[in-house]
Write a structure and sequence with these properties.
Number of strands: 18
Strand content: 25-35%
CATH class of the largest domain: Alpha Beta
Shape: elongated
Number of helices: 7
C-alpha cells in the first residue's frame, strides 16, 4: 500500500464560509478523512487557514504556537454585542473623534504581553457552554481576561470613523477585542468591519491555494512536508538506529536540549516531536510511526 499523504497546506478562505468548509474541501479533494485545521477563522473573516493532512494532524497544537498576522478594519464611534457587524450596531450620539496623535499614543499599552477579555460572541467555554450561545440567548456572559501577546500593532490608515490596523499576535487573541479595547482607551467605541489573516507563521496568503481552486492536484502541489509546521522548534537529525529506538518508545538522552525538539530522519522527514520526559530524557510525542 502507498504511504498515506501527510503534510500541511495554506488555504485562502473567502469571507462568508466557515473554517470547517476548508477542511471538508481538502478532505473531499484527497478522498481522505484525515484532515484538520490549525486555528479557526471566523466566517466573516478571510485569509489563511492551515490545513493538516494525514499524520500532520498531530501537529495542530504546535501550529497554534505560531504568530498570526492580521489586517483589521474598524469603525469608531460604534458598538455591538459581538464587537463586529454580526449583531446590530449602535452609533454613539456624540462620539469622540480622537486625533491621530492620541491614537498613536495609546498603542504601546497594547503591545507585548497583555490581558484581554474575550468577546462575548466567541467560542470560549463558560460553564461548559459556548459563550456565543449564551450571548444569543440574552444571558449574561462572564469571561475572565486571558494573557495574550501582541508582537506588532500599527495603524495602517485612519480617516474617521475608519481605522486600519496591522497586527501580529499570539494564538487566542481576539482582534475584535483588541479594537474594542483600543477604542475605549481613546474615549470611544469600535466595531470590526473586516479581518484578513495574511499569515500564520511562514504560511502566507500569497502562497495559499484559494478555496475555490482546491482540487486533488492543487493540494498535492501545495502540500508542504510536516516539518514545515514546526519552524519554531529546534531540529535534530537522527540516524537510522536512533529513529528505530525512538519510534519504539525509547528515551533519548539529548542533554540540555529544549523541552520540544523536531526529530527528523536522515532523509529530512519528520519522525515526531521529542518531548522532555520526567526522567530528563526525551521521548517522541507525537510519534509519526506509532500511536503516541
Amino acid at each position: 500500500m502507498p504511504e498515506p499523504l501527510t503534510g500541511v497546506i495554506a488555504i485562502d478562505k473567502p469571507p462568508g464560509v466557515s473554517s470547517r468548509r476548508v477542511v471538508d474541501a481538502v478532505a473531499k479533494a484527497l478522498g481522505s478523512k484525515a484532515v484538520g485545521h490549525a486555528g479557526t477563522l471566523d466566517p466573516l473573516a478571510e485569509g489563511v487557514v492551515v490545513a493538516c493532512v494525514g499524520r500532520a494532524t498531530k501537529l495542530v497544537d504546535f501550529i497554534h504556537d505560531l504568530p498570526k498576522h492580521y489586517r483589521g478594519g474598524f469603525l469608531l464611534g460604534r458598538s455591538s454585542a459581538s464587537d463586529d457587524l454580526e449583531t446590530p450596531v449602535e452609533e454613539e450620539a456624540a462620539p469622540v473623534r480622537p486625533s491621530a496623535a492620541a491614537l498613536a499614543a495609546a498603542l504601546p499599552a497594547f503591545r507585548g504581553a497583555i490581558l484581554q477579555r474575550p468577546c462575548d460572541y466567541s467560542a470560549v467555554h463558560v460553564a461548559g457552554r459556548r459563550a456565543y450561545r449564551l450571548a444569543r440567548q440574552g444571558r449574561p456572559v462572564a469571561l475572565a481576561a486571558k494573557p495574550v501577546r501582541i508582537d506588532r500593532l500599527e495603524v495602517t490608515a485612519y480617516d474617521w470613523p475608519r481605522l486600519g490596523l496591522d497586527i501580529v499576535c499570539s494564538s487566542g487573541t481576539f482582534v475584535r477585542a483588541l479594537g474594542r479595547d483600543l477604542a475605549a482607551a481613546i474615549g470611544t467605541r469600535a466595531v470590526m468591519e473586516s479581518l484578513v489573516r495574511t499569515a500564520v507563521g511562514p504560511f502566507r496568503r500569497e502562497a495559499a491555494v484559494p478555496l475555490d481552486a482546491v482540487t486533488a492536484d492543487s493540494v498535492r502541489r501545495g502540500l508542504l512536508p510536516a516539518v514545515a509546521a514546526v519552524p519554531h522548534l529546534p531540529r535534530l537529525t537522527l540516524d537510522a538506529a536512533t529513529v528505530a529506538l525512538a519510534v519504539r518508545g525509547g528515551l533519548l538522552d539529548l542533554g540540555p536540549a529544549a523541552d520540544c525538539v523536531a526529530a527528523c530522519d536522515e532523509a529530512g522527514d519528520l519522525v515526531g516531536i521529542l518531548r522532555r520526559h520526567a526522567s530528563g530524557r526525551h521521548r517522541l510525542r507525537p510519534n509519526f510511526h506509532g500511536v503516541g
